[in-house]
């Protein structure tokens, strides 16, 4: 059974958007709905609630049957000339074309920033992976140098250390590839939204374009842009080789594990 996308509150962008204001044409969570109804200008607004709370896009004002010619920046909704005078008189209004142009630019910037950050992180991981593999080779070489000094007596120890390093390398490289795949998946989603954005350029109706852009903007917010991980490291503290206490002749092998950082939730707020 296909999963239904859960809408989020257009105001706080945090809670579920279970309530749809028919006048403002916005989704509200329960808390924001209560705050909305407490204000004098919106105390008589009506809401639809439930999973099918958001109706089809209206081309005209539902209350006055007038064309939308303005966009209220404060309410984030298109308004007709009558609503502009009666309900949005003190609000910051702009022409619908200009607002569409502004939002279109913002959506495009969000897409480009998201793609740029994802590509940058992938490039950093690739660079860090190359350095890590170089470090692995250098450590192996150091161990082999000590192994040659101890000759046949310590050959088994050398082999054990190399196996340990290579096993850790294989594990870390697998983890790094998994992280790269996660970044690539996010990048593919961002590029998909970019393609959808490019498709909107052929839409002539401003209202339809506005709704499509808002949809793309909402989808962009859901793309999980993970932070660049702490790269693994490997070091080897060499000791002078002697014939006493074989285990003590070898240095300490140190591994730096990969740390997958959690995304800063403030990132989502900055995308609004």
TrEMBL record:
Q: Where is the B box-type domain?
A: 56-96
Going by the UniProt record, its keywords in alphabetical order are: Coiled coil, Metal-binding, Zinc, Zinc-finger
Q: Which InterPro entries match?
A: TRIM45/56/19-like (IPR047153), Znf_B-box (IPR000315)
Instruction: Give the domain of life.
Output: Eukaryota
Please indicate if the UniProt record lists Coiled coil as a keyword.
yes
Where, if anywhere, are coiled coils annotated?
108-200
Statement: the UniProt record of this protein carries the keyword Zinc-finger: yes
Alphabetically, the GO molecular function entries are: ubiquitin protein ligase activity; zinc ion binding
Q: Per its record, how is this protein called by name? A: B box-type domain-containing protein
């Amino acid at each position: 059974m296909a999963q239904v996308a859960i809408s989020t509150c257009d105001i706080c962008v945090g809670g579920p958007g279970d309530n749809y204001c028919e006048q403002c044409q916005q989704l509200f969570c329960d808390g924001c709905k209560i705050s909305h109804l407490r204000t004098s200008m919106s105390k008589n607004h009506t809401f639809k609630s439930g999973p099918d709370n958001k109706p089809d896009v209206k081309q005209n004002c539902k209350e006055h049957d007038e064309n939308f010619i303005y966009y209220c920046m404060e309410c984030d909704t298109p308004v007709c000339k009558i609503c502009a005078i009666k309900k949005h008189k003190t609000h910051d209004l702009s022409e619908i074309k200009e607002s569409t142009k502004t939002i279109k630019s913002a959506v495009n910037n969000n897409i480009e920033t998201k793609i740029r950050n994802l590509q940058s992180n992938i490039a950093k991981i690739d660079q860090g992976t190359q350095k890590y593999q170089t470090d692995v080779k250098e450590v192996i070489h150091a161990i082999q140098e000590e192994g040659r000094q101890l000759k046949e007596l310590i050959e088994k120890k050398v082999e054990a250390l190399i196996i340990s390093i290579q096993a850790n390398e294989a594990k870390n490289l697998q983890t790094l590839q998994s992280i790269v795949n996660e970044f690539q998946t996010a990048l593919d989603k961002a590029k998909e939204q970019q393609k959808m954005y490019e498709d909107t350029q052929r839409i002539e109706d401003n209202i339809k374009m506005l709704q499509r852009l808002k949809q793309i903007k909402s989808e962009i917010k859901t793309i999980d842009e993970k932070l660049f991980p702490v790269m693994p490291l490997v070091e080897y503290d060499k000791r002078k080789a002697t014939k006493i206490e074989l285990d003590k002749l070898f240095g300490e092998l140190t591994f730096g594990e990969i740390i997958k950082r959690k995304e800063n939730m403030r990132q989502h707020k900055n995308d609004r």
